Input
Amino acid sequence: MLREIESVIFDFDGTLVDSMWLWRNIDIEYLGKYNIKCPNDLGKCIESLSFTQTAQYFKDRFKLNVKVEDIIAEWEDMAYQKYKFEVMPKLGVIEFIKKLKNEGKKIALATSNRLSMVETVLDRYDIKDYFNCIITSCDIGKGKYEPDIYLETAKRLDTLPKSCLVFEDIIAAIKSAKAAGMRVCAVEDEYSSHQKEEKISLADYFIADYTVLL
Output
């Protein structure tokens, strides 16, 4: 899998950490404040959007008389303690990151989440310094339905796309990373377990967890 690979790019939620459950709960709780039942299709509609785009989507779809920045601030308040104390890394991923660094690979994180949430977890497990760069979809201005975030990450790593390996858990992101000309390893996650076969068919590799790579 790592043959001819110079840089490894990780997604965050559902790939580096087990956290997709958290956002479903936040969606339900947040909409509940407005007496709105969380639609079954919501996760699919927002899974490849940036954090800011997701807040705008909520404002537009549910006709919320709230500023986008206020939605974001409230979500961050709701999520912070869970990221700080409850969210756990995927099995074997910390050991795998350390292995990559020891082998001289460049490592990056490309996420749709907020930098504050990401850094909370990385600091908690003392692995922030292993990453050469961290890029969010809000930095790019586009969600993961486009390859832009992966291409920008490769640029910052000074690595050709063909020499990058991406770890992702969402169908749209897998497609975009492939469109960027990168190799992709799909990661199993309970949130997207119903898409397992499609993920396997789209990606170059598939893992249940990172222990198989140690």
Summary: The beta strands are 7-10, 17-18, 88-89, 106-111, 133-136, 164-168, 183-187, 205-207. The first strand starts at residue 7 and ends at 10. DSSP finds ten helices and eight strands in the chain.
